[in-house]
């Protein structure tokens, strides 16, 4: 039904655009909305024009210029796809809901659009495909903006600088990435840490886990020699597991940047996302949330 509505709305928008091109009328943006029922969602079909569906959006949005934002507003919610094992960016709070920096960011975006935020927790390596197949609006998951991923999804502006780090047991003889050869190294499946250990290092026995904390638990239990993961979660995993430390030498020299993933071509949504991110960055709000959720996450694991 929603698809039908969208198609009808798009056809209508196209028709309006064509009509606008054909005749330079004074008011091409005004849709032929029955004036007696402004904003009515279930208006009776207008007899003179197939405009009933267009009444669902305010007239200025029926131009087809913001189709993805219009669809989100119509649904009344913005759907964020994430993997809630990545503190301080996304993790389960004490009441088992997903909280963290990325949830705050997506909440600010939802608020700017006037809709609710829905958070869907899924495997990290399924997020890009889920976006492509329309299962959510935004991938907000501490996701590194890589050229490979940018072939299949669009990215917002970058909002966090990060790097891959190495977690080991205290007293380990591993002091840097070169020492990982021949070792059992845990990573989160499908992440840049996984790609680095798998593709850039020789002779590593790579063990893949669904979340970083799963890998951390295995390291703490002595079943792994090291875990390679992003800096933020690395610190949180070490804090949550006595006996684990993060090496000072990073795994990779290349810094990484987090960005929000959006299905390709949703330029209206991307612009709205970027506007909110720019403001949050300018206000120092993202760093404030990182500090806040690092504390919440540490307190949770100490409890
Ligand atoms: N930044 C890493 C990546 O994009 C890890 C992200 C994550 O595990 N949530 O691959």
Biggest sheet: strand arrangement: 10-9-11-8-12
CATH fold-level label of the largest domain: D-Maltodextrin-Binding Protein, domain 2
Annotated CATH homologous superfamily of the largest domain? Periplasmic binding protein-like II
What would CATH call the class of the largest domain? Alpha Beta
Account of the protein in words:
By secondary structure, this protein is α/β, with parallel strands linked by helices. It folds into two domains: 67-161 and 256-302, Periplasmic binding protein-like II (D-Maltodextrin-Binding Protein, domain 2, 3-Layer(aba) Sandwich); 164-246, D-Maltodextrin-Binding Protein, domain 2 (3-Layer(aba) Sandwich). Helices cover 37% and strands 21% of the residues. The chain has nine helices and 13 strands. The chain has helices spanning 2-22, 67-75, 101-113, 127-132, 192-200, 212-220, 231-240, 267-282, 285-302, and strands at residues 77-82, 85-86, 90-92, 98-99, 116-121, 138-139, 153-162, 164-169, 184-188, 205-209, 226-230, 244-246, 256-263. The protein has a five-stranded mixed beta sheet with strand order 10-9-11-8-12, with helices on both faces. Strands 5-1-6 form a three-stranded parallel beta sheet. A three-stranded antiparallel beta sheet has the order 2-3-4, covered by helices on one side. Helix 3 packs across helix 8 (267-282) and helix 7 (231-240) packs parallel to helix 9 (285-302). The chain is globular. It starts with a helix and ends with a helix. The model is unreliable at 1-62 (pLDDT under 50). The chain binds glutamine (GLN). Glutamine (GLN) binds at residues 83, 86, 124, 141-144, 188, 191-192, 230.
């Amino acid at each position: 039904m929603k698809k039908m509505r969208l198609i009808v709305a798009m056809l209508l928008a196209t028709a309006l655009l064509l009509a606008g091109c054909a005749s330079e009328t004074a008011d091409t943006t005004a849709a032929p909305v029955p004036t007696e029922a402004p904003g009515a969602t279930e208006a009776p079909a207008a007899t003179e024009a197939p405009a009933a569906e267009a009444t669902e959006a305010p007239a200025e949005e029926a131009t087809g210029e913001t189709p993805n934002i219009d669809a989100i507003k119509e649904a009344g919610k913005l759907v964020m796809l994430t993997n809630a094992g990545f503190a301080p960016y996304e993790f389960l709070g004490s009441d088992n809901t997903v909280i963290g920096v990325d949830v705050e960011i997506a909440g600010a975006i939802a608020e700017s659009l006037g809709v609710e935020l829905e958070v869907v927790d899924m495997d990290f390596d399924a997020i890009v495909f889920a976006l492509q197949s329309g299962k959510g609006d935004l991938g907000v998951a501490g996701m590194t903006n890589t050229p490979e991923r940018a072939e299949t999804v669009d990215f917002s502006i970058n909002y966090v600088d990060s790097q891959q780090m190495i977690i080991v047991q205290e007293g380990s003889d591993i002091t840097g990435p070169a020492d990982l050869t021949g070792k059992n190294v845990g990573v989160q499946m499908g992440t840049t840490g996984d790609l680095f250990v798998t593709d850039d290092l020789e002779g590593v026995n790579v063990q893949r886990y669904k979340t970083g904390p799963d890998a951390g638990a295995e390291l703490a239990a002595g079943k792994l020699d090291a875990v390679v993961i992003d800096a933020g979660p690395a610190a949180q995993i070490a804090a949550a597991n006595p006996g684990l430390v993060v090496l000072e030498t990073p795994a990779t020299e290349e810094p990484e940047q987090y960005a929000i993933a959006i299905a390709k071509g949703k330029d209206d949504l991307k612009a709205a996302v970027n506007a909110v991110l720019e403001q949050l960055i300018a206000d120092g709000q993202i760093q404030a949330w990182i500090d806040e959720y690092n504390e919440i996450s540490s307190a949770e694991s100490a409890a």
